[in-house]
Amino acid sequence: MAKTLNDVPPEMLWEIMAFLDARTLILSSSVCRLWNEIVKSSPGLQYTIELWAEGMVRGPSGTLTRAETLEMLRERRRAWRNMEWKSTTVAEIESLQVCRAYELVSGIFAQQQTGPEFVALSLSRIVQDAESARSDYPFGIDPLDFQDFAVDPTLDLLVIVYVLQGDLAHVECRTLSTKQVHPLAAHSSIVFPHPHDPGMLLSIGIADDIVAVFFLDPAELILYNWRLGTIISIYVRPEFRLFLLVFILTQKQPALEPLLLPIQDFHLLSPRSYILARANEDENRSGQIEIFTFDGDSPNAPKRVATLELPELASRGLIASINVQMGPFCANPNPNTPFSKANERRICMFLIRYNLDVNLDVWARLFVHSSWLERYTLPSVRGDNGTEPTIVPWDEWGPLNSRMLAGDDHRWIRQVHGERAALPCQNKHSLLVLDFGVIPRRAESHLLSEKSSGSPGSATMLEVEPSTMPNEHEVFVEEVTTSLPYRRTIRSVEKRHDLFLIDEDRIIGMNLEDDTAVRQEMTVYTL
């Protein structure tokens, strides 16, 4: 009979360790030489550790062995750290400056063109056969009525918002593959009052069973469980109070307070939480990030659980805009790859425009892990009694858990995916990738081992020391110093690009210099 775990046959010990998570496996490998050897020699255990380190989750491996998927994961890591792409493909699309809307999720680039055509490009197939990678479907919606769309390819879900001339907004849930009503949708569409305005600003968020539609000016918000067919919450403008009263009475929803204005932006964190970015010229000039939770299964009023304050501004400054960007929330792993990015391992980028006077704007990018924001949904973290939102001053959260860098006016969506952001440089033949998925000690060892294998024209640097936001225009009362670790990689590219989009396996470069062009090229760099 075995007296200790070390007396157990190694193959049985491996079976036991297979139930452990990555952090526990790393700790276990330091217990003794035997355990360390078992962890190091097992492709399955190493795969668990590497998935955690890269912020990935398991997907379908097909016929691949664990050793093969482990090597694929390591090759992927090397490719991203050295900016080594396997292929470069050029495709023609309608210019982003003229199209009605576009999306980039799970290897699908989709675009609603100025005409009736909805175009979807499979970026994994475009390398082999550009013609078969493209599908065109008309929605059957007047282009003047169409507003926006969003997709989750892992659910085969396409959400469309359009507003008819009678001031009725429609939200439809279709399949991405056939454009017909989604079989899991409880209703083909929901309808609510909204003015018909082709120039309105709105965004759509999808997080599993929740669809959120946010209108910016004036602020309106609809949270909808598309599988149950239940409107969870709805905030509409004052002229539609009669509709809201009928909704409250028929849906048995508690009366909602109006959204406090002005709201700069909205984003779903998870299927049961979201954030609002807020700032105004009076008591809240410095800006706040508000975190809300809600019950996604029945009508209810979302609850503000925490408010994170942004750096205090000097008397002459105010926030003119905050744009929130985060990679897509995908309900399932990508079925076409053995691993996918974990939803809880995403970086949130706040693009902030500080206005000092009529002719002077200062741009900044603030990066925060979505998991840090979502932790405030837990009462144990907030340390409160659950009745009032927790107010967190900047000095208590920002310096250690964020990174503020100088920014510029680039508000195009899908510049962020997972824990990476792909940004243009002043030199339009250069690409900058910021990777916040670093574990400093582990990253340093990999950086040393892979230092000599970088692509020509590329340079990478691990940033673990605090940095201070430039303040020559005296935007802030005090210096803003932040220290969230990240890796920055710059690579030269042959083509000129002033915009980059990013997803799990590729970077897309575009040139928007000619704002009168109807068609444009996009260059797909596949890693």
Explain how this protein is built.
- 17% of the residues lie in helices and 38% in strands.
- With 527 residues, the chain is an alpha+beta fold.
- The protein folds into two domains: 5-76; 83-526, 7 Propeller (Methylamine Dehydrogenase, Chain H), CATH 2.130.10.
- Helix 2 (22-28) crosses helix 4 and helix 4 (43-54) runs parallel beside helix 5 (66-82).
- The model has no long low-confidence stretch (mean pLDDT 87).
CATH-level-4 superfamily name of the largest domain: YVTN repeat-like/Quinoprotein amine dehydrogenase
- List the uncertain runs: none
CATH architecture of the largest domain: 7 Propeller
Q: Structural class, from helix and strand content?
A: alpha+beta
What is the fold-level CATH name, i.e. the topology of the largest domain?
Methylamine Dehydrogenase, Chain H
Q: Work out the count of structural domains.
A: 2
Distance between the termini: 51 Å
Mean pLDDT: 87
CATH C-level class of the largest domain is: Mainly Beta
Shape: globular
| Total number of helices | 10
Task: Assign a percent range to the helix content.
Answer: 10-25%
How many β-strand runs?
A: 34
Strand content: 35-45%
Specify Rg, calculated over alpha carbons: 24 Å
Strand order of the largest sheet: 15-16-17-18-23
What kind of sheet is the major sheet?
Answer: 5 strands, mixed
List the helices and strands and how they pair.
Layout: H1 10-17, H2 22-28, H3 33-41, H4 43-54, E1 56-58, H5 66-82, E2 87-94, E3 101-105, E4 108-112, E5 117-122, E6 134-138, E7 146-152, E8 157-164, E9 168-175, E10 189-193, E11 202-207, E12 210-215, E13 220-225, E14 230-235, H6 241-251, E15 263-270, E16 273-278, E17 288-293, E18 303-309, E19 318-326, E20 339-341, E21 347-357, E22 360-369, H7 370-374, H8 379-382, E23 390-392, H9 394-401, E24 402-406, E25 416-417, E26 420-424, E27 430-435, H10 440-449, E28 458-463, E29 467-468, E30 481-482, E31 486-492, E32 499-502, E33 506-510, E34 519-526
Parallel strand pairs: 18-23
Antiparallel strand pairs: 1-20, 2-34, 3-4, 4-5, 5-6, 7-8, 8-9, 9-10, 11-12, 12-13, 13-14, 15-16, 16-17, 17-18, 19-21, 21-22, 22-24, 25-26, 26-27, 27-31, 28-31, 29-30, 32-33, 33-34
Helix pairs in contact: 2-4, 4-5
Domain F-box: 2-55
Protein name: F-box domain-containing protein
InterPro entries: F-box-like_dom_sf, F-box_dom
